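pinning this so it doesn't scroll away 📌
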Amino acid sequence: MNQPTPAIVAQSAVRRLPRIALLLLCAAYLLPGLVGRGPWKSADITAFGYMAELARSTDGIARWFDPMLLGLRPETPALIPYWIGALAIKIAPAWINPDLAVRVAFAFLLWGTFTATWYAVYYLARTARAQPVAFAFGGEARPTDYARAIADGGLLALIACLGLAQLGHETTPALAQLFFASHLFYGVAALPYRRNGPVIALAVGTIGITLSGAPTVGLALAIGSVLYVAYERRLAAQSASEDFVDDESSGPGYTRAALFTMIGITALAAVLVFSLKLPTWKITVIGNTLLGDVRSQAKLLVWFTWPVWPLAIWTLWRWRRQLTARHVALPFWFALVPLAATWSTDYSDRSLLLALPAFATLAAFALPTFRRSASALIDWFNVLFFSGLAVLGWIYWIAMQTGVPPKPAASVARLVPGFVPEFSPIAVVLAVAATIAWCWLVRWRTGRHRAALWKTLVLPAGGTALCWMLLMTLWLPPIDYARSYVPQIRAVAERVGQPRCIAELALSRPHIAALRHHGNFNVQPLLLGTDCPWLLVSPDTIERLHTIIPFDQWRFAGTLRRPSSAADDLLLYQKITPQ
């Protein structure tokens, strides 16, 4: 016999979150950072470099299945993200910068992630074992209203995740992987209730994630989902044979056709992956990372998934007697696989990004089990935390603009040497509006009115959106200056002008992409025998430089430094013209 649910929810607690408010919150999170900046280091500019190369390629369809950047294949074995970016560049009007066109396309991917996560949580909350306790005299939450409230909470939890802010606004394969993983999650969750939409989502999600740089993770998620569906069908068959109807069988379940559809989609994805030779799982040496770097991995997990990880743990504890239920088992699996990739590969944060929809789902199912005192504690913590961050943001911005107070001004100058502060009235107006909206939200949340199930996550989501808005308005110029290669490429242009070509030796992919995009330079590898008047060299080759460069042909012309990072130095050489 199934254990009773720990959720106790009245109908009055599942009132609807106004759609206009939810849409405005999503827009306030999505739109800041689209304009007013260029691609950032390092993965952002690198991915854009491959997209731009595909967009200008004339080598035919074969090049689209083998993206190259100056003869270098991408470190992430992805295809679809580069196709999306290249197509966005091709179809964008001439007056739109290519990098802006790509950011707009990837903003739609993040919006799609929000949509898929909401519907996945909604259909998981519709299952019988996820429903709240039935009251003796009625008054418990109706199933659809309860599911909608839980879904609102899941979307708020996803927006609140700190790790989503930067990576969710970059144009990298990681964001495409998140989009496809969330659709795979939605397809599995909604398949007992719908047919066409979930099947399409399953196909798009499974094939998309495997062709977006995470083939092993994608196949693991799909295979685990197939096994769970088979397990649930077996339990339903046993219950039917025993003439026993449990809580799960009282609601929609997975059909045989659904199981075979999932198996077929997974098999198709596996064939594509292995035929294109994409499966990779770069396991890090056990003694080096799995044991020696546990502390840094734990810190990453704590801050990246804040504030949802404590709620996810609480869900696993409060629903511990129903760990095999659909609304717990599926998100747990979709969180476990990316966690394994995080701890065993070199792509820690970008692997962990794929777990955020599942973490948010688990966090949402903690809401109906909270007591009022716990909700109040969470609210006051978030009020103090995000209000403090906003106050610090304003104080340091005023100091950067005016020099007062002097210590914050000196700190900013030290972090972004050479940056000249700019005043933008539009940015200030948007930042003031976001701050006023936050104050109103705090006043509303702490006011005396009926409690709603999703209210506990309103302040974390609103606070995260506020901080991102302040960063992308008040602080966008210094952040862009610090994270962009524009100052360094501008320094290169001032030294070399616009030559017919620039030779390079051992430059990184980000530097090559930045030289081609920001400087419009014709970069050519030195080792291919190019005859360029200038040469850019990575300092990493300094020890063996004399064995590669004949110094009777090249003269050292200086070191070009990116202002905020000495690790990105470039060595400039000028070819000696024979007399």
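📌 and the second one:
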Amino acid sequence: MRPRYLLLVGFPIDSGLVRYAAERTGLRIAHATERFAVLVDEACRSLEIDADSMVIGTLFHRHGPPRATEMLGEAERAALVQGGREALLKSWWGGYLGLWSKGGTIQILRDPSAALPCFRARSGGTQLFASDVELLSLAGADLGGIAWDRLGRFLYSSGLPTAETALGGVGVLLAGEVLILDGASETTTRGWSPWDFVTPRNGEESAATAERLRRVVEQCVSTWSSLYRHPLLSLSGGLDSSIIAACLARSNRNAACLTLYTDDPAGDERAYARSLCDELGLSLEACRYDLAQVDLGHALGAHLPYPIGRAEAQPYEAAHRAIAARIDADAFFSGNGGDNVFAFSQSAAALADRMLSEGPGAGAFATLRDICRHTNAGPLRVTRAAVRVARQPPGYRWKPNLGFLHPDLAAALCGLLFAHPWLEAPRGALPGKAVHIAGLLRAHLNLESDRSRIASLINPLLSQPILETCLSIPSWQWREGGRDRAVARAAFAEWLPREIVERRVKGTPDPFCGEIVRRRRAELRERLMDGQLARHGILDPGAIEEALRPDRQTTGEENVRLLELVNAEAWTATWSSRLCNEPLPARA
């Protein structure tokens, strides 16, 4: 069972709405005051700080035992009352919302890992916050229809998390953000910023850095897994999920693994997965990506207020649900976010960082050599690229995805400011760190896949202690030896098979994407050219018609985008039907 919660805030709270919400959702009222009420299911904890302050969700003590906190002690409550959100962020981590009510002001903090969703809406004068949109709807939220302008921005913005969604009346509280409600007014501020953790430890040797990373990753995985009796891990033959597998095995959790494979060797990693599981003593299931399981009219992410995922992931989700049911798994674990957290990059930003930090010299030359080995680019090309990066203004320039969008929409959005608190780089920020932080943001929209509806989906590599540790490691250390994610490889070299630690090629389901487009070309063309996205001026029918000509071979990039867009089309059909055909009963 996944944690579900509903938070109602009012000035004062509508007690009738609270009772109505409890009746409609089946959640129990865990705490209620004149200003707010907290409703939770059996899987969601609610920890009282004092009569006017709460933590909703899963909380772990940073320096305590590897298990969830069931009750706060007197000294802990006093520290959280006095220190507020700063004390919570410093001494605790997990997947939670923190809430403090004082006088006429309420502060709500969402944890930095985005582990606990937080969608928001209104019901009259009451603000609602919930783990999912269904709870908002059941509680009588004032939901609108599909916001087509927002949906266009979403598809243009290439995965940037924002406070808006593609459903009218529904918003999001961003990870690490604090919402301050003062009567009818509200403001937001950063509770946690990745830029506070980018300062490296002076004089720390590479071996010590790797050991520090290993310890924090092992601790976080062990702590998360303590909540479950039989987790199912999504396992490729790659580094990130293999690290999770090793930590689960060392924690003596009754974990099982599942890998999916394509008919094309590029997407078949069973040999690596078997080697790992044999060494760790973990069971392994293998399922094939089956074209028969792809329904282009089915929407992944239909439970969310924006479309996520691509059509080729349907067999992946189906396999996880089937295996979980067969082995009675009670949670899904994933290495999702590993590339982002472990600073995977093929750019020259690490060389720019080192030159800006240390100037030209032996260190910069070593990083130049590492990048050349990693990318097979020549030293002159890498050096020129690093100089260009170093001369750019601080911060990361988020790039839109124009693929198959209507030219009028692209023109209207060309001046759109891609804004997010984490993208606001301080003066003197290193470009490689800006890239690293932007990568963390890219993981946030992929944390609530369809299987998360039947059991908790845990992405332990995005845990706050791991984020903070990885941010403190200089970008050039992640490229040492001409390898990506070098510090993580070194940290777990003794725990993993050598062939996994030294892998330089990633497996990919991209061949399966190409197979779907080739065999379902006519259906793709019909759905995208005649669908709602085209009718609302979001897609360019001419570009789609050209790409899907019978005699034309699509590129890998086009395949990925087409399958993303056909999933978005299915999402619009699902929500259009749901909003029209499922009116909420009136509240007495």
